[in-house]
Structures are given as structure tokens and as C-alpha cells.
Carbohydrate ABC transporter permease
Amino acid sequence: MTGYSYSRPRRSITLTVLLGFLLIYSVLPLTWMLFSITKDQPDLLTSFGLWFGDGFALFDNLGQVFTYDGGIFSRWFFNTLVYVVVGAGGATLLATAGGYGLAKYRFRGRNAVFAVVLGAIAVPGTALAVPTFLLFSQLGLTNTMWAIILPSLVSPFGLYLMWVFAAEAVPTELLEAARVDGASELRTFFTISLRLLVPGIVTVSLFAIVATWNNYFLPLIMLNDPDLFPLTLGLYTWLADATGVGASPVFHLVITGAFLTIVPIVVVFLVLQRYWQSGLSAGSVKQ
């Protein structure tokens, strides 16, 4: 039996300190939020931010969030779900179909499409906000749900991600064998390819869900009806209304509402975490 020596990797003090600062930077705001949602408005302004106040007002804050301003928070929550289900769901579907087609079919102009997709990824969304607003204004779609849903359907990064993933995850030989057996292209896609694409689909959907859920700038310029606001814009209006002359601050409700906004995203990540991890690592090891 031959012996061997195992050397531990050296620890970098600088890297450890840097990661420690990044950890504190990430966790500190969440810690402050968890303590703050247990305080009422006076305690929020007078007590130490990283500890409890004189009373425990969590359940009172939760109740007030859903009753304040006529209970409009529930409407904002419903609007956000609609934008996510239709917008992010549609973006995932289009990215999956487009990425699979570009990865597994050869046609004239394919390289040009690739260049356009890469160029679209490089363009920030804020740069397209004003042209999109002008276009939708001409079409009469501003101040409607379609003004948020239609732009959300376009995801160049999701298309590129599915393109790269489908090229590695779906063997061409498997598709050719299905065609030899007489399977149509649609049947091959839904019965064979779609199952192999599940990790990539989940990864793209997570990115699309987070982007749509946190969307703020597009609703800000497209919507002026509070009944159509998503959570991000709705909570901002509460914050803005509470800072005017003679206004009554409701910072405790804004913070509690922000906490309720985070919870669904955390749940989605925890549920789909294993698919997301496998999707990101796919193709990293060759067999």
C-alpha cells in the first residue's frame, strides 16, 4: 500500500476578512428588518435598530398592512402575482422554445440571431424604458397591466441561457433516434427534450421571477392607477406619502410590507434550489 501526503489549502487572511465584511453587509439589513417588523411607529424611531422595542407589535403590524388605505396591499400583492405568473411564465416559455430551436436546428441567419441576442443582453433595461413608454403610449397601452406584462415577456439573457443549456443537455443523437422512430418534432420536444431541459427551465424561471417581482422603474413610468401598482411601487407610494408636510409616517407598515414582499421569493428559492443548482452546474463536467 503506497502512502500519500495530503496538503491542506492555505487560508488567506485577506480573503477571509473580505468575505466576513461581505457577509455582514448582506446579513445586517435583513437582521435590522427582522427586529424592525416587531416594533410600532414610536418604537421604530426611538429604539436601537438591532434589538426589540418596548413592545412586540408584529401581529398588529401585519394586520394593519392588510387594512391600511382600504386594504390596497392585497391588491398590490395580487397584481404582482399576475405580472409574475403571466410575464415571467411567458418569458420562460418563450426562452425555452427559442433557445431549444436555436440550439438544435440549423437555418440561415442563425449567427445573426446570435449576435442580436448578445447585443440585447448588453443593453440595460432602463435605456429602453422611455422608448417603450412612447411606443405603448401610441398604442394606448399605458396604465394597463399589458404595459408591464408585454416587456416582461422579452428575456434575451434567458434565451441565451437556454440556448447554451439545450446545446449540451439534449444529445443530438437522441433526437435523431426519435425521428427515425417516426416521432414528430413536437412530440420529440414534449416527451424527450422537455424533461432534459427542466434544470435550465427552472434556472431561467428563477431569474425571470426575481426580475419581474422586483420590477420598479417600468411600473413607475407606465402606471398611474394605484389599483394596478405592483408591491414595489405601492410600498414606495406609502413611503412618499408619509414624508410630506402634515403626513402621518407609516414606516413600520412599509418595513412590514417589504418583509412580506421578500417571503415569497425566499420560498420559491428554497423549493427550487436543487433544480437551480443542477442547472447552473450542467455542462461543467464532461463525461
